[in-house]
Amino acid sequence: MDYIIEGGHRLNGEIAVCGAKNCALPLLGASVLTDEQIVLHNCPAIVDVFNMLELLKAMGKSVFWQGDTVTVSGTLSTTTAPQYLARLLRGSALILGGTLAAYGSVNLPLPGGCAIGARPMDIHLKGLESMGAEISCYDNALHCKGALHSAEYEMRFASVGATENLLCAAVLVKGTTVLSNCATEPEIEALERMLVKMGAKIEGIGTPDVSVTGVKKLHGVEFDIIPDRIVAATYLSAVVAAGGQITVTNCNTNHLHAFINVLRPHFNVVQYADAITITCDSQPSGYGRICTAPYPFFPTDMQSLLLAMASFSNGGQTIVQENLFENRLEHIASELVKLGGNITVKGNSAAVTGSKLTASNVVARDLRGGAALAVAGLNADGQTVVHGAENICRGYMDLDICLNALGAKIHKQ
Ligand code: EPU
Questions:
Q1: Nearest CA to 183 among 150, 168, 201, 205?
Q2: What pLDDT is attached to residue 111?
Q3: Which residues pair with 278 in a beta bridge?
Q4: Which of 173, 251, 277, 317 could cross-link to 214 by cystine, CB 3.0-4.6 Å?
Q5: Other Cβ atoms within 10 Å of 156 Cβ, number
Q6: Is the pLDDT confidence value at 119 over 90?
Q7: pTM for this structure?
Q8: Rounded-to-integer distance, Cα 81 and Cα 263, Å
Q9: Whose CA is nearest to atom 5 of ligand 1?
């Protein structure tokens, strides 16, 4: 699928943010911890969520959608995830800890997802091994078994997925498991809060040091998926690209702190707890030096948007350092160059000198990079074609329709 974008149309109006992909996936992964109903409101209708639900269904869960609410229930009929589904998304890895804890074994084909880096799983696996799991890897799949016990485990890096998997493993394990150097992204705090609502005992919610005291059984839950901070940042970048004034609603602006801090010196930003209004009439001369790092610092998932904004800024320089995923910077930089972006990448840093972009044909090589190219297309003179727009649909609900509602001119083909 292609997005065909006619640049140069100003954006105006109000737009609500949908639920977060990276919150929905771990909450769905945690559904294996109980046979009772997990009812998730504000669930985004996006391809990664559809594929995660297909995976759970193939393993025996029942799934029911109504409006933006998805209900998952039932017992797993197998602890082996089918390869054709697991390879479609990285989020499939999020069934590992919970399935092992609840059923004593799990077989997971190596997960897929965006090719933004090597994405090893050593932190997940070492953590599970410290809890007594026996893990082997053959036939392109992880095979884990064993009765888990409590443990103390310090992650060598604050991995989002490993934190989520180890939390889901620890909630059903006898004794107190102490996890340190945990990731503290808002989506992890949401998972911790949902687990507590299911009956789990967790201390240190939202902090790097988390203690989990296992319980025998968890029960069903009704829970709201948190708003997608990356989608919110995408809308904000879109108005930076196109000019105009928009209000982004149904977001938690605390979760957008690092991104808003980049915008605030250059644009008129009015911030409320759950909404933000931004007015953009001219381009700043660059954004200075920004490095990606785990929450609460500048997120890697917003790096491509920042690189796009830097590339159409007004002449000044921006330095962007990507510290998490080794391919992400190159993916987006090489495509922005086709739009006239003046970007030099050395190692994990990009030096960008802003200039007016001109339309061209580009390729969405990963989800966030694809969305950033759509944003860049709003700035470029002429008609930009973003090939591979199906990558964008993995994480965005109708990005084209949402931006068109604000005045953009994008159509799919
Ligand atoms: N890492 C390891 N070993 C591990 C785990 C991670 O070396 O065992 C490394 C990774 O290679 C990477 C870094 O640690 O260099 C961070 O990886 P992390 O585990 O934190 O990321 P993830 O769980 O694979 C989630 C999001 C990503 C987001 C990152 C970072 C989901 C489903 N995915 O991935 O989202 O970029 O955290 O915040 O929650 C996206 O939405 O487009 C996306 C890629």
A1: 205
A2: 73
A3: 246, 269
A4: 173
A5: 10
A6: no
A7: 0.97
A8: 43
A9: 121
What would the mean pLDDT of 273-278 be, rounded to a whole number?
A: 98
Q: Is the pLDDT of residue 118 over 80?
A: no
CA–CA separation, 113 and 130 (whole Å): 27
Share of the chain above pLDDT 70, in %: 98
Cα–ligand 1 centroid distance for 186 (angstroms): 14
* Paired tokens of 299: 């997120």
Ligand 1: residues within 6 Å at CB?
Answer: 21-22, 25, 90-91, 114, 117-124, 157, 159-162, 183, 299-301, 324-325, 367-368, 395
What per-residue confidence (pLDDT) applies to 133?
A: 97
DSSP structure class, residue 363: E
Cα(370)–Cα(385) distance, rounded to whole angstroms? 11
Instruction: Give yes or no for a contact between 300 and 292, defined as CB atoms under 8 angstroms apart.
Output: yes
Q: Determine the average pLDDT of the residues in 286-310.
A: 97
pLDDT of residue 267: 97
Q: Are 206 and 184 in contact (CB under 8 A)?
A: yes
Active-site residue list: 114
* Helices vs strands, H then E, count in the chain: 14, 23
Say how many Å lie between the CA of residue 119 and the centre of ligand 1.
7
Residue 221: its H or E element: strand 221-224
How is residue 45 written in tokens? 């209708």
**Rounded to the nearest whole angstrom, what is the distance from the C-alpha of residue 232 to the centroid of ligand 1?**
20
Whole-number pLDDT of residue 116: 56
- Ligand 1: which atom is nearest the Cα of residue 117? 11
Q: Whose CA is nearest to atom 4 of ligand 1?
A: 121
Q: Which of 28, 119, 123, 332 for a ligand 1 pocket mutation test, highest count of atoms within 8 Å of Cβ?
A: 119
- Expressed in angstroms and rounded, the spacing between residue 409 Cα and the centre of ligand 1 is 33
- pLDDT at residue number 326: 84
For ligand 1, the distance from its centroid to the CA atom of residue 8, given in whole angstroms, is 35
What b/e readout covers 30-69, taking b as 16+ CB neighbours within 10 angstroms?
bbbbbbbbbbbebbbebbbbbbbbbbbebbebebeeeeee
| Ligand 1 atom nearest to CA at 160 | 20
Which value, to the nearest 10 degrees, does the dihedral of the CA atoms of residues 366, 367, 369, 372 take?
160
